[in-house]
Structure formats: structure tokens, C-alpha cells
Specification:
This protein has about 290 residues and is of the alpha+beta class. The protein has two domains: about 170 residues, Fructose-1,6-Bisphosphatase, Chain A, domain 1 (2-Layer Sandwich), CATH 3.30.540.10; about 100 residues, D-Maltodextrin-Binding Protein, domain 2. It has seven helices and 16 strands. The strands form five sheets. Strands 5-6-7-8-9-10-11 form a seven-stranded mixed beta sheet, with helices on both faces. Strands 14-16-15 form a three-stranded antiparallel beta sheet. α2 packs antiparallel against α3 and α5 packs parallel to α6. The longest helix has 17 residues. It starts with a helix and ends with a helix.
Length: about 290
């Protein structure tokens, strides 16, 4: 039996489609979007199977190269990207497309809906045969994620969230960390800077999406970055964490927006709600020093 066939349900549903309330450009109006959730689940699972079929951790060989120095990519990234673009485009033709492995087309900016995809988040772990990678898919409407899905087949995990309805892993509802003290907070990290050594390190998958999801699963209390990051890395997992009850923001405590002309954000902070303000304060001097000026 394959790993993914052992994983629980995508989300516990009684119906074959989600009727999603999507904010329109006017503050009191909403659009309703019908999504065939069973087909979406099938697409994401199949993408995971496709990636797993090239994963060196199962003894497969995969072609790899660097897009830029220190930025690896594999043939599996491109194959999964092509598959998802075709199948998700057929599922919801009205949506635009933003992916790490596809040349950006600004026509997405004219769409109220946009798929935001990282075909393999955590490519370094993937090509090294480690388990810390995932396929990440989010559907964004007017700057906010409506649906978020992560499949981590090497870990036997399927994560999902629907805006306003909750988040799940393998069919079990998630409840985020409720830690109230910043000191001692669990952070996925391989090492800590001197000023961060009041925190507690836990296992760090290469995938930032999986690290964020760990806060939603109460397996970490805090994930923070102080660098430019891409929307496709975090769109799905930030919805999962938020719907599980976590606080989600940029490094300065501001809300995140998606499907922007420049699909980047400086810094990320996902934590239990009670320590979020302390985390912003703890990072403030470094965030101010590192953030782009002007």
C-alpha cells in the first residue's frame, strides 16, 4: 500500500463540494465559489504520488541543478508543477496561476482568484532523501487564502484548511499552540543565535510550510523569518496555522497579503496568539535593521 493511500481523509466532509464565501472588491459583497473538494483532494494526492515516485529517499534517481547559486531545483519540481497547473486550471478555469516553477504572468493580477503553488517546498530535503518536504497548494481570493493544502507523502501527512471552517491533518482537526510565555517557546531550528537562546529547538524540516504547520499542530510555538520570502512558500500553511488558532503576520506584526504584483513579503511570524506581541518585540531591532528602506 502506498504512503498516501494510508493517509486519512483530506477534510471530514459530508458533501462533494465546498461553497466558499469569497470577499469581493466591495466591503459588503461576497462571491460564492463552488469547488469540487473530492477532485481537489485527488489532484493534490496525485501530485504527492508523482513527487514520491522521484524521491531519492525511496531509492529513486532524480535530475537536479541550481536555478541560481544555492537555489536547487529538480526534474520532479517541474513535473509536479506542470501537472498541478493543468489539473487545477481545469478544476477552476477562472483562477490565475502563481508558482515557484512557472514564469510569472501578470494577468493573474486581473483575476479575483489565484492558485498559489509550490510544487515541492523543501527541495533540499527532497533531493537529499529526507522527509521534510511537501507539495503546497493555496487558492487565494482578493489577497486572502480561501483554501490551503499540504501533502507530505514521505511523512504520511495530508494537511488542509478552509477559511472560516478550520484546519485538519489526516482528517483530525488541529488546535494550535496556546503557549503563554515567550521564553522557552518551541521553534523548529537547527541552531539559534545568541539572542534567541531563550527559545527551545525542535525538529526542523527544510520546508518552511511544514514548519508553519507545526505551530498549527501544537508541535511548535513559534516560526519566524527575517528575510524576503515568496507567497508560494507560505500561503497554504499560513491558512492552516491561522485556522488552527495561531497568530500569523509579517515580521512587524502586519497582516500578510497574497497575489501581489511583487509576490514577496519581508519576514514572517507565526506563533501562539499569547506570545505574538512578545515575539514582534523580540525581533523588532533586527527586523528594522534588515528590512529594505524606502
Amino acid at each position: 500500500m502506498s504512503r498516501l493511500s494510508e493517509v486519512g481523509n483530506f477534510v471530514p466532509l459530508k458533501h462533494s463540494a465546498w461553497r466558499l464565501k469569497s470577499p469581493s472588491s466591495t466591503p459588503t459583497a461576497f462571491h460564492y465559489i463552488m469547488i469540487d473538494n473530492l477532485r481537489l483532494e485527488q489532484i493534490v494526492r496525485e501530485a504527492g504520488h508523482m513527487a514520491l515516485g522521484s524521491w531519492p529517499g525511496d531509492g529513486h534517481a532524480v535530475d537536479t541543478w541550481e536555478k541560481n547559486p544555492g537555489d536547487p531545483v529538480s526534474a520532479a519540481d517541474l513535473a509536479v508543477d506542470n501537472f498541478l497547473q493543468r489539473e487545477l486550471g481545469a478544476l477552476l478555469p477562472a483562477a490565475g496561476w502563481l508558482s515557484e516553477e512557472t514564469a510569472d504572468n501578470e494577468r493573474r493580477l486581473d483575476k479575483g482568484l489565484c492558485w498559489v503553488v509550490d510544487p515541492i517546498d523543501g527541495t533540499r530535503d527532497f533531493i537529499r532523501g529526507r522527509k521534510g518536504w511537501a507539495v503546497s497548494v493555496a487558492l487565494v481570493s482578493n489577497g486572502r487564502p480561501l483554501l490551503g493544502t499540504l501533502v507530505a507523502p514521505a511523512r504520511n501527512e495530508m494537511w488542509s484548511a478552509v477559511a472560516g471552517k478550520g484546519a485538519w491533518r489526516n482528517g483530525e482537526r488541529l488546535k494550535a499552540s496556546t503557549r503563554t510565555e515567550f521564553a522557552g517557546a518551541r521553534v523548529p531550528a537547527a541552531s539559534l543565535m545568541k539572542e534567541d537562546q531563550i527559545l527551545t529547538m525542535v525538529d526542523q524540516p527544510n520546508s518552511i510550510a511544514l514548519r508553519i504547520a507545526m505551530v498549527g499542530a501544537d508541535e511548535a510555538d513559534l516560526v519566524a523569518t527575517l528575510r524576503w520570502g515568496w507567497e508560494w512558500d507560505v500561503a497554504a500553511s499560513c491558512l492552516i496555522a491561522r485556522e488552527a488558532g495561531a497568530a500569523v503576520s509579517d515580521a512587524f506584526g502586519n497582516p500578510l497579503n497574497y497575489n501581489k504584483r511583487d509576490p514577496r513579503e519581508f519576514g514572517l511570524l507565526v506563533s501562539s496568539p499569547a506570545i505574538h506581541a512578545d515575539a514582534v518585540k523580540h525581533l523588532a531591532a533586527r527586523a528594522e535593521a534588515l528590512a529594505p528602506k524606502g
